[in-house]
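Annotated sample (chain length 450).
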Amino acid sequence: MEASTETALLHRIATEQAGSRAPSLVAGVVRGGELVWSGARGFVGGQRPGNGTQYRLGSITKSMVAALVLRLRDEGKVDLTDTLEKHVPGTALGHLTIAQLLSHTSGVTAESPGTWWERAKGGDWAALDTSLTATELKHRPGSRFHYSNVGYGALGELVARIRGKGWFEALREEVLFPLGMDRTEPHPTGEHAEGWAVHPFADVLLPEPHPDAGGMAPAGQLWATVPDLARWTAFVGGDTGDVLHPDTVAEMRALATVDDADTWNSGFGLGLQLMRFNGRRLAGHSGSMPGFLATSLVDETTGTGAVAMANSTAGVGIVRLAIDLIDLVERLEPALPAEWRPSEVDPALLALTGLWHWGVTPYHLRVLADGKLNLAPANGEGRASRFRHVEGEDWLGLDGYYAGETLRVHRSSDGTPVHLDLGTFIFSRRPYDTDAPIPGGVDPSGWRAE
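Output written by the structure step:
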């Protein structure tokens, strides 16, 4: 990274730390799946914090719990349409689906009943479950976005029931250690920042508590360092290692609900916050706990991401800071597209390429470098989708209108592709080809002037 870019990044975090009066602030930039820059301002125990200093992540914990749930789904142990009752019987939340809990569309209350859980020692799941009644359902399930910390307490218990171990033990074994995140923990160890409240009208501090949240811990318990959070940011951007398939993480990043329905600048996927800012689409999560603020965001198109953490209860524009760091890097050192190079292509797929017609609308089918197919209108406007091979002649739609739909290739006796069946839409080599099973048939008199 150029020295001038590093200076601009340092200036941005220095301005934020001084202007918001944060006791300390650390940040980093991710590119190509790697932490390429990190910086710090302020002090922790009289020393400048570094890449080994832990800060509390708050609700970024939720995204990691969501990854565990998606692992269970990919293994066939749960379905996202399952109700919680199927796996955690007897709870008042049993009628809610796993997908609704992941996307904050369950309608369940935001905070657990009783004392505010973020500043009080929490009981176990049984105690939390006992406190939940029908009155904790604030909205009709599926009707709207309503952020719920309680919902993630329930998802942590779901993981524990199926794995037969605590949610964090499962997270450490299945996600954190495989990703090299060995400094992400439920309680601080070694070098770490203390959480502070900054007086609004004087430059003095008050220590904040950080008790174990018990059954609510999956909603915001974890601590991490800049390198660990940077690795998680790369994961969200698609560098998933063997923890999840990239397609699954892309599913987590897909919009499930919108927070600000009139403008769609903020929404939620499956365990991930989604934002649109200056033409960028960002995915990740923010976090706040008494004494701490944190954020992790990545531009899913370029793979450039940023992390930021501060040990202050309020006042730091932590999300906007991360957005600005991404914007600075992309503006000062725009990512270059990968150089085009020829790729290995299964020769059998070449016969599928070229011009196809849906009715009279021409489409082009291309083979992509990763072996997927791309079907798109020849004029570039309209329904376009990529497809992944499933088995035999079947391909699965990955995005756009045909996401989840099956494209089936039909061949003649000599193996030549003659038409495509895409969810009952027939694509033929010629417009309304009489050799293809065009729905409703083709007028036998053929094309004519009138």
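Annotation: The chain has two domains: 29-332, 347-428.
Annotation: DSSP finds ten helices and 20 strands in the chain.
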